[in-house]
Amino acid sequence: MTRRSLLIVSALASAASALWPLPTSLSTGESFLRLASDFSIDHSSISNPPQDLLDAITRTLGFLQTDQLGVLTVDRGASNASAVKAAPEISSLKLSFDTGHSGTVTSISDEAIDDLESRVEGYSLTLPADGSAATIQANSTLGLFRGLTTFGQLWYYVDNITYAVEAPVEITDSPVYPYRGFMLDTARNFFPVSDILRTLDAMSWVKINTFHWHMVDSQSFPIEVPEFPLISANGAYGPTFVYSTADVQNIITYAAARGIDVLPEVDTPGHTAIISESYPEHVACPQATPWATYANEPPAGQLRFASADTTNFTASLLSSISARFPGKYFSTGGDEINTECYTALNASGQTFEQALDTFTGATHGVLQSSGKTTVVWEEMVLDFNLTSLRNDTIVMVWISSEDAAAVASAGFRLVQAPSNYFYLDCGGGGWVGDFPSGNSWCDPFKTWSNAYTFDPIANMTAEQAAFVIGGEQLLWTEQSHASNLDPIVWPRAAASAEIFWSGPGDVDTALPRLHDVAFRMAQRGVGAIPLQPMWCALRPFVCDLLA
Amino acid sequence: MTRRSLLIVSALASAASALWPLPTSLSTGESFLRLASDFSIDHSSISNPPQDLLDAITRTLGFLQTDQLGVLTVDRGASNASAVKAAPEISSLKLSFDTGHSGTVTSISDEAIDDLESRVEGYSLTLPADGSAATIQANSTLGLFRGLTTFGQLWYYVDNITYAVEAPVEITDSPVYPYRGFMLDTARNFFPVSDILRTLDAMSWVKINTFHWHMVDSQSFPIEVPEFPLISANGAYGPTFVYSTADVQNIITYAAARGIDVLPEVDTPGHTAIISESYPEHVACPQATPWATYANEPPAGQLRFASADTTNFTASLLSSISARFPGKYFSTGGDEINTECYTALNASGQTFEQALDTFTGATHGVLQSSGKTTVVWEEMVLDFNLTSLRNDTIVMVWISSEDAAAVASAGFRLVQAPSNYFYLDCGGGGWVGDFPSGNSWCDPFKTWSNAYTFDPIANMTAEQAAFVIGGEQLLWTEQSHASNLDPIVWPRAAASAEIFWSGPGDVDTALPRLHDVAFRMAQRGVGAIPLQPMWCALRPFVCDLLA
Predict the structure, then answer these.
(1) In this predicted model, what pLDDT tens digit does every residue of A392-422 receive, in sequence order?
(2) How many C-beta atoms lie closer than 10 Å to residue A402's C-beta?
(3) What is the CATH number of the domain that holds A126?
(4) Any idea where the Glycoside hydrolase family 20 catalytic domain is (chains A, B) (predicted)?
(5) Domain boundary, last residue among A502, A520, A535
(6) Is the dihedral of CA A143, A148, A150, A151 positive or negative?
(7) Which of A530, B177, B380, B543 can pair with B376 through a Cys bridge, CB separation 3.0 to 4.6 Å?
(8) CA distance A307 to chain B (A)
């Protein structure tokens, strides 16, 4: 893993160059440039362009028409209008592969689900000031797509004119980390497919490349599994709260076309109580009371992981589900396994750790045999000595950012998902009933700026740091559903998107650019919240603490 | 002020009788009752029914058709279906005035803006189990409307049938407190009229009767004032961020028809920096730096309240604005007046308190001479000795619930709006820039249950308690606009709606009913959040802390 320092170029304070995430290298001028009414994106140099690239071009052209975003200054650009009208006009953006390209054209969708280490997301972009054609070059179709995303952030609107504010622009760009994710829990509360698709769009706009889909949990099992039809029939919140096989395929396809791999998670052996509604023989202590003794959340219940039958059932279930996902990664969870539930009901004579080791070996084995790399939460490495856990397993650090070094020392690649920086639900108060004094266990609220100060390799040696493959912000949904998805997630989840694309940034100067992200998302139909009064958003740094 | 204890009737645990706010007296049976397909609301006994009552009848009939809410049980009522099909059918609801009615029929809109102490909101309601006509009786049109609101909460849906679950129902009901409000700040960020109208609808569903409209503040002045056209031209965030005179009238009319009085607030003399954009001569220390020395929030700037010219200007401005509001109450604010800004720039020779007393007397005087009762924040009573403050002024307690007793002891009627229970924005993290460690000043987040434990007369003598006229939850909008209005407000703001209609309730048993509020709001297009995983919402009390 290489680590590069950020090139933060002068123009930030003008709130004009508002790219997010910041490119590896960016140079800008001071000229306006008008977008011609017949502006087009030229892909003629790409033989047999894949359909998803053509679709991305169409979407980009659409945003150039519909974003209609005024610059974030007090007059929203009105004072630019006369100069903009006199500015040179640009008619074309030319896409091409550069000399490093293999010659075989593959789709965004195929490249998006390649091995993390094999993905090629870099590109270079030029926007000349004189009106000659802009260019994006890359070694991959995915790289061209990332460049198009950047291109779409360069434009503002005044008096019916779309214009760039800082031509000429020259960019060379590629991500620091290969994994940049967002996690959504669709089990505590359900999200319609349309909400997930809109979220995928927003993710792609800030170059997030992994949708970590925490599909199921103790409260509901909303995924249709054709081989186990009862599991959603009895485990979803109702017939309209199920992701059908077609829905899942739709989500996978939509994501991939936007450069996003879907990382499915079926959390085992804990967080599985709802399976007792369809397969009671495989679940220990279902709805046992008091729930707090047997689980971290109601209802209690976890897979009987000491049972060979249950192990076989689980392996079969995971195999069925994973077969529908073309990506190379699959998470089996492994967090918060309850000892009381095991102790109270285990009759196998194995220790907890022995049983878990056997279970993990078997369930991971079936996934690995079909070509998957397994992903687990941190307890599987830090709390147990599981000889069956292959060392290519990817580990998600969630309990605390303090735990990452230990995971790395154990020799596992890791994703930074620490609750103390990246949990988007924290600060919303306790949700357990009859507990009026209850606050969030992970108080306080994680503001964008708190998240943005996260250092992916804090307190790590260079050797440990090499195991960090990226990170993600996460939404657990005990108190969220479609009505508050956008405002809880955006623009906050852009914080980690930049950290893991660009490397850690400067929290003192990032806010004006993040306002731009929020305002542009709003123009595109994503309900990002305002981070400040608009008075502040239009006056960079004037509302800073010591201003 | 009378205070009555709540009658909490047995059926709560079934999650079926889900009225919110709880009626004064409620008795329910155990029978299902079907709504006939030709169900109608009979107003024939009311001569010359006002149009707003007819409109309310139409809306109620609409909700009976479109709510289509399944009961909040695991099967959403499927197991009720066969019994429901065999249940008696009800065809009519008869509205009538009872014997106490004056005989003169007035509109909801007129009654809604009467003196707080004169409003008559009580009603009685019967829903017989045998299919004979239901009844609502009241001494006022406003009371009939409150009864219709209750009637609309009695119905669920299964298999294309709308049905009540606990017939017969008998209710007598009237509010404990006359003031039950919700405050929205439209100055830190702007809200389109449509969002305010939707909020008014949701307020009316839980019998909130006052929209406290914090219209303007230091960051923007979004109200068109025809006599002072520059004030919004220069002070709004832009031409599309202005409430025109027609918009204001629309909001007032829409609110009144739903039993809601609009309490406008023009905060003075602090929180007025933006007026410097149009009338710089009246604003001291505009955008002075560091802002934190001269104001609690950026930008600094407040009215030169020691100046006779500024006092006259302010009186004229308040008079112009207040003339557009038909209600009897008008808030002049008065919170967070900055001493440094006064000291640095005052040249009048008066003390701060003398100047404020003169300013208050003059500005309140012009409002009072046009028939308004003035409303102020607590500092105007607790921090200063203002001889000009008439003792019919209503005082809003906001800094802390601890301050209410002192306001009452000073002899002022008061509204409970304490930040430590009722501020909906708390817990969202700091919004000031370059302050990544910043949390909300009023952390933690105020959950519904925290708000619901508020006791309006805690630590008060009976004499002090008599000054409490009600309360409200409040949304300050530094980090809110249309995208997160509904989820921040609903269903949380229903907590105070019940406290001040029904009196303090039982936080241990309220949650299932509040889930019902949230689910029904969602059916009606208001983006209320889920308070728990749906698994819990469908299983009353099972997710309680000690369950």
Answers:
(1) 999 999 999 999 999 999 999 999 999 999 9
(2) 12
(3) 3.30.379.10
(4) 177-503
(5) A502
(6) positive
(7) B380
(8) 27
